[in-house]
Specification:
185 residues; mainly alpha
């Protein structure tokens, strides 16, 4: 599906009524990347993924919100994680549906994108499908942050989903706590 980055960005921006909406003014996609960076910054090695993390290239930006290196495939994985988190409790409530529809409109998602999203909603990705393609600790943190930003933790199923996702992605508990601290701020 083309436009995954725009859809992630629009979904984060549609979180009206939360502290996230004001922060997302800089860009929802950048917010995910920055939140993930803050989560892993200063945390020790979590897994073998850290050893394979790529060093920043010669054109690396000094800003923690630089998301130029996050490709469309990873953005699609973020989007799949967001949908799976949204569907963790088994239903799409009216507020969630409204937010998805508004995000699709804001991102200019066409019929193909809408069909893809409806398919994902009907059969959300499982934890392993989300974790298996992830190769670095930074990617893992970005996928986790996207899933966390997609929902308000108001059900046991959503909390359990995020806990299992963090474990499957090998996101350290300290990084998970930093994400929660940033969202509470």
């Amino acid at each position: 599906m083309a436009g995954a980055r725009q859809m992630v960005d629009a979904l984060i921006r549609e979180r009206r009524g939360s502290s996230i909406a004001a922060t997302a003014a800089m860009g929802g996609f950048a917010l995910v990347v920055g939140l993930a960076l803050k989560a892993v910054k200063g945390s020790g090695p979590a897994s073998d993924r850290d050893a394979s993390a790529e060093a920043p290239g010669p054109h690396a930006s000094p800003t923690p919100f630089d998301h130029a290196d996050v490709g469309e495939d990873e953005a699609r994985l973020m989007l799949r994680a967001m949908v799976a988190a949204t569907m963790a409790d088994g239903l799409l409530d009216a507020a969630e549906r409204k937010r998805l529809d508004a995000a699709m409109a804001a991102a200019g998602i066409g019929d193909d994108g809408r069909a893809w999203l409806e398919k994902e909603l009907a059969d959300p990705a499982g934890i392993d499908q989300l974790a298996d393609p992830v190769k670095t600790a930074e990617q893992a943190a970005r996928i986790y942050a996207a899933a966390r930003l997609a929902i308000d933790l108001d059900t046991l199923q959503e909390r359990q989903f995020l806990k299992m996702l963090a474990e499957a992605l090998d996101v350290p508990s300290e990084a998970v706590a930093r994400v929660e601290q940033e969202l509470a701020a």
